[in-house]
Amino acid sequence: MTTKNNGPTRFPNLPVKEPTGAALIEQERAKATFDVKTLSKFIYGEEYLAKLDKIVPILENDSVFDKSRRYFQSRDEKIRDAWRKDRRFLELRKKHNWDDVDEKIVHGLYDQPSPYRLHYIMFVPTLEGQCNEEQRKLFLEPSKRDEIIGCYAQTELGHGSNIRGLETTATYIPETNEFEIHSPHLSSAKWWIGALGRTANYAIIMARLIIHDKDYGPHTFCAQIRSLEDHMPLPGLTIGDIGPKMGYNTVDNGFMMFDHFRIPHVSMLARYAQVKPGSGEYIKPVNSKLSYGGMVHVRASIVSETGRALARSSTVAVRYAAVRRQFYDSTSPRKWNGETIETSVIDYTMVQYRILPIIANAYALMFTGREMLRLYHLNIEAMKQGNFDILADLHATSSGLKSLTSFMAVDGIEECRRSCGGHGYSMFSGLGHFYNDYLPSMTVEGDNNMIYQQTSRYLLKTYRNVIAGTAQPSEHNLTLNYLAQYLQNPKAKCPATTPTDFLNPEVILSAFGFRAAYGIAKVAEQIDHQGRPWNDALVDLHRISRAHCQYFIVRTFFTALQRDNKENTPKLGTEERKILQAVASLFALHVMEKDLSDFVLSSYFSAEQLEMVKQQVQDLLKVIRPDAVPLVDAFAIPDYMLHSALGRYDGNVYPALTAMAEQEPLNSTQVVDAFEESIKPMRQFALKNRNNDSAKL
Amino acid sequence: MTTKNNGPTRFPNLPVKEPTGAALIEQERAKATFDVKTLSKFIYGEEYLAKLDKIVPILENDSVFDKSRRYFQSRDEKIRDAWRKDRRFLELRKKHNWDDVDEKIVHGLYDQPSPYRLHYIMFVPTLEGQCNEEQRKLFLEPSKRDEIIGCYAQTELGHGSNIRGLETTATYIPETNEFEIHSPHLSSAKWWIGALGRTANYAIIMARLIIHDKDYGPHTFCAQIRSLEDHMPLPGLTIGDIGPKMGYNTVDNGFMMFDHFRIPHVSMLARYAQVKPGSGEYIKPVNSKLSYGGMVHVRASIVSETGRALARSSTVAVRYAAVRRQFYDSTSPRKWNGETIETSVIDYTMVQYRILPIIANAYALMFTGREMLRLYHLNIEAMKQGNFDILADLHATSSGLKSLTSFMAVDGIEECRRSCGGHGYSMFSGLGHFYNDYLPSMTVEGDNNMIYQQTSRYLLKTYRNVIAGTAQPSEHNLTLNYLAQYLQNPKAKCPATTPTDFLNPEVILSAFGFRAAYGIAKVAEQIDHQGRPWNDALVDLHRISRAHCQYFIVRTFFTALQRDNKENTPKLGTEERKILQAVASLFALHVMEKDLSDFVLSSYFSAEQLEMVKQQVQDLLKVIRPDAVPLVDAFAIPDYMLHSALGRYDGNVYPALTAMAEQEPLNSTQVVDAFEESIKPMRQFALKNRNNDSAKL
């Protein structure tokens, strides 16, 4: 065990204490009341799981996709690896003939943002949507063939959410039939643009269109920004990386400033708005409601992704909580081979209260994302025939859902990390890194603290329509339904008389609907009849968006459990349905408990009923506890993806932690260089001072 | 503006748009209703501020204390700089003859954990407390002269909070009068030990004392662990760094495993427990209640520190919210030189609702920490005379306070960061880095999710004493007082009839006291008379600890505003008192609103009163808004400390962001090496594929 030279530090081969993590987690799996595989198929479908099984070993065995250095890398090493991975991905895609679903799986498994990915997420879809035929050939086709790499340059140093406030100008020059892009102020610099810093050679540029001194507001341009030969920025451009961030450091978020940068007329994407060559006549875009559908699709993906983020975090938290033991529980001691052992922390009710609701959130959000997609597809035909009624409700709801669910995800990831105690702070937990990379979800695709207002605005409008009698009843318009029900009796009371009444979906849904409607009616009254300004009401407007979206999620979760018998999805057995029903109830009642004051303001609940809700949450935790590990196993997240010492499938937490620590670069020598530079001189300084002091005495 | 070679990227000299950040923030300062300097003096005292003024320029002008590379460093560079700083600190301390207060200021300003600091925080105090006279000479004196560097090795890979579960053994060997330290399992490895990995040459080691096969549980030892000549670990030890963490990467948290490692008899710290040489007779420690006081002192510092953490975060958030403008507010448009400009985000009520309560939290916690110290000093004499009654309440409260306030700090830092929008995600905000380094406060000095139980246990005990009539009334025992008041009328109702009634401290305090007492009475009833097990009640036990501590903080805040006239502290003027009273009310009512359901369960509040609380919170935000910037200015946090582009005193946010981005290493060349390695080959691969595909057609 002793090291005599200055070589690397290696761990001695110490025995693992009984019961091992593997034994403990196996015991958890033996307790399952349902079949894990059946539930996984219900969540993902068989095809997806088969693809996953095929791809994991390819990545595990590819040196470029190796993750073993991930937690030790400097930013420079990280981003270099990200570019390598992007290059290798093209080769593997061709070799294995990966389709779109495979691609998503690959990037999900590798689990690190990379520069090229933004090309596909932002650059290509914008071109798809806004190019005319000529531009499709010029920009879109080479993009899809990966011959150019693009970025999406909208945000500026001084402007984010308010697109109308963008400062970059694109002035039409009739003489040369060009546009001149210019940054008038420091705050006009394009900023935060993913893959702009050092990667992209093309950019979508949002700039204010100016024709004959008239400002037509922001329009979309596409232009080359770097040489395709030597990658130098084109003359007139200053381009760089904006520096380190909390996460996302594998992407070169960049800045760009324009000094009277000229681009040809064809650069203005012309599917909607156009400028006539020469005359500079402006042709207005035709409004298209079809974009409604696209946005619902994007947001459905975001919501599903928040579900997967929580699935992943709770997998780590729950497995580790089953393995980690702390203190002897004197009232119900844990036994192992006849001896009392320390209790697994998952048996403490405080731990259950923290992490089991996050499992419930994960299921709720995965089903919500799926339901949004189902509705989207169900209505796509109706939309083509000009019928937007059904989707309008969903579209309006999707803003608030994006805001609510990405907050739920970010907070849930962090709560899972914290529930891991001290080791949760180590990068080897796999959750710190994930949290830092996930944080931007609160800001991108609409800042969470802004976009809920779209939902609130719709809710108020719907309320006014119901009051005015101008609303058309519709089976799919949830808002109309709960508002109408509320208005029939605004003094209604919750009918529950025992805690188990709160397991009844009807009781739960009525409470959520009443609470949302009460809040909407109140704010509408204040704004419409008491002159309360919008800005003054923002906190309450946020509350109604939140209340509405929680109603939507709760309803969706319960509905998902009824739907599978009717439709062409894998079936649930009795046991799987039973545990999911408990999970759905926990989701709803936990939300209710957290926001209890909202339910109280309307006097819908009595103090006794509040106690029943709290009691039922505790009872549900007891029901779900034995299935905690199987419920996260059903998320089917491979160890390769988790890259977590704490969340491993096999439960061997401590050997994994020590094996990872052995790779720490500081351990490559027994004595660091800093010893000679700093540590030794400190002692010498101290000894010298002591001698001087003694000499003075 | 164009760059023709592959040199570094430099920003063009673009004009800053009017109104500049500097102009906006000056306008904020002109609105102050009170004198910032007077308030600063009230918070810190004049002496402290004078020391601060003296030290800041010393550090700013010292190359080792320079922060300009901080956000760009790899872990290796970070920790190397930390050691350099530790060395330089010793030199500067001697040169400037710094005392303990100066030292704290220096480390606070530099604001980065460093290996040597733990020597002073953990190693030296343990020796102070537990050495006998011989050991003081042997260990303590050279430690205080910096001739040896120590760490505190308690936590193990498999054991954190449960000290009784530690596995490392220290077996007494009578033959040689030594102890043999050994790690029986992998989970026994010492883990997380700050400064152990590569710095310390001595360690405090917690290990189970075994004499003649009898286990006496964990005891404290001190031993040399590395050579003082070449820094190699001593034979029998495996020592290394545990790897990267979310933060604290400037410290080498380490591991250590013992292979029958022998240390002399004198190594067992013997002020309390002792082992007789030769016979191995064990001499029990005498219980000392004096340690009560020490713990209160440590926890008072922690609480004060949480206040400073929030002061710092809110300084950044508030200043940036004053400078950052977004959207035109149509109902009350912002004017500048007659023109309508975008509104500063601090004028949106949602932003006020998010960040102004954090200013209030900062003030509340700074005053709470100070009050704890005041009580500690007030009672130190009483304790020496054997009177522990007064401090008992404070000691029991301090566990829950540590838990509650460090959660408040961590969550508040993150909320401030998020309130900065996109730029809050940049390391240049100064808050991401701070958050990551601050996270361990939830775990160290007692895991937040465990230690509240100490407070809960005391609350239940006190309740039982009150019920049994065995409690002695005491002016300083807050718990007794509110419990007694509750028991006089458990059906009491809140007397408030208008929203302004909630500005009355009596009304507020009665509500907080009633709510705490109601919760305690209920849990006591369940545990004592309904057989509810402790583990089953953990969630409710957490609630009563929280309720009690919130009562304590609210009471302390209001008391602090009355006290200064009586005692020898700098005085508040009428204006300063007025704004602080609004801040105190906001603190209390915002807490009340967040935990409203707790106040409702007891039926103490009616639904109408709940609305009044919500209304009054909104009204207080309006009162405090004009003083927001002056209130954070009063925290007197120098720019050197903040190291934040967003939180600068002068408001010049955008020039600071661009200046920092210019330093990003990726910008040192216009084209990165990865272009040749990855980006160019991707294009070549794509072009080759296209040609192959065309050839096939």
TrEMBL record, chains A, B:
<dbReference type="GO" id="GO:0005777">
    <property type="term" value="C:peroxisome"/>
</dbReference>
<feature type="binding site">
    <location>
        <position position="194"/>
    </location>
    <ligand>
        <name>FAD</name>
    </ligand>
</feature>
<dbReference type="Pfam" id="PF14749">
    <property type="entry name" value="Acyl-CoA_ox_N"/>
</dbReference>
<dbReference type="InterPro" id="IPR055060">
    <property type="entry name" value="ACOX_C_alpha1"/>
</dbReference>
<feature type="binding site">
    <location>
        <position position="155"/>
    </location>
    <ligand>
        <name>FAD</name>
    </ligand>
</feature>
<dbReference type="InterPro" id="IPR037069">
    <property type="entry name" value="AcylCoA_DH/ox_N_sf"/>
</dbReference>
<keyword id="KW-0576">Peroxisome</keyword>
<keyword id="KW-0560">Oxidoreductase</keyword>
<dbReference type="InterPro" id="IPR009100">
    <property type="entry name" value="AcylCoA_DH/oxidase_NM_dom_sf"/>
</dbReference>
<dbReference type="GO" id="GO:0071949">
    <property type="term" value="F:FAD binding"/>
</dbReference>
<keyword id="KW-0274">FAD</keyword>
<feature type="domain" description="Acyl-CoA oxidase C-alpha1">
    <location>
        <begin position="292"/>
        <end position="460"/>
    </location>
</feature>
<keyword id="KW-0285">Flavoprotein</keyword>
<dbReference type="Pfam" id="PF01756">
    <property type="entry name" value="ACOX"/>
</dbReference>
<keyword id="KW-0443">Lipid metabolism</keyword>
<dbReference type="InterPro" id="IPR046373">
    <property type="entry name" value="Acyl-CoA_Oxase/DH_mid-dom_sf"/>
</dbReference>
<feature type="domain" description="Acyl-CoA oxidase C-terminal">
    <location>
        <begin position="504"/>
        <end position="683"/>
    </location>
</feature>
<dbReference type="GO" id="GO:0033540">
    <property type="term" value="P:fatty acid beta-oxidation using acyl-CoA oxidase"/>
</dbReference>
<feature type="domain" description="Acyl-coenzyme A oxidase N-terminal">
    <location>
        <begin position="35"/>
        <end position="149"/>
    </location>
</feature>
<comment type="similarity">
    <text>Belongs to the acyl-CoA oxidase family.</text>
</comment>
<dbReference type="GO" id="GO:0003997">
    <property type="term" value="F:acyl-CoA oxidase activity"/>
</dbReference>
<dbReference type="InterPro" id="IPR036250">
    <property type="entry name" value="AcylCo_DH-like_C"/>
</dbReference>
<dbReference type="GO" id="GO:0055088">
    <property type="term" value="P:lipid homeostasis"/>
</dbReference>
<keyword id="KW-0276">Fatty acid metabolism</keyword>
<dbReference type="Pfam" id="PF22924">
    <property type="entry name" value="ACOX_C_alpha1"/>
</dbReference>
<feature type="active site" description="Proton acceptor">
    <location>
        <position position="445"/>
    </location>
</feature>
<protein>
    <recommendedName>
        <fullName>Acyl-coenzyme A oxidase</fullName>
    </recommendedName>
</protein>
<dbReference type="InterPro" id="IPR012258">
    <property type="entry name" value="Acyl-CoA_oxidase"/>
</dbReference>
<dbReference type="GO" id="GO:0005504">
    <property type="term" value="F:fatty acid binding"/>
</dbReference>
<dbReference type="InterPro" id="IPR029320">
    <property type="entry name" value="Acyl-CoA_ox_N"/>
</dbReference>
<dbReference type="InterPro" id="IPR002655">
    <property type="entry name" value="Acyl-CoA_oxidase_C"/>
</dbReference>
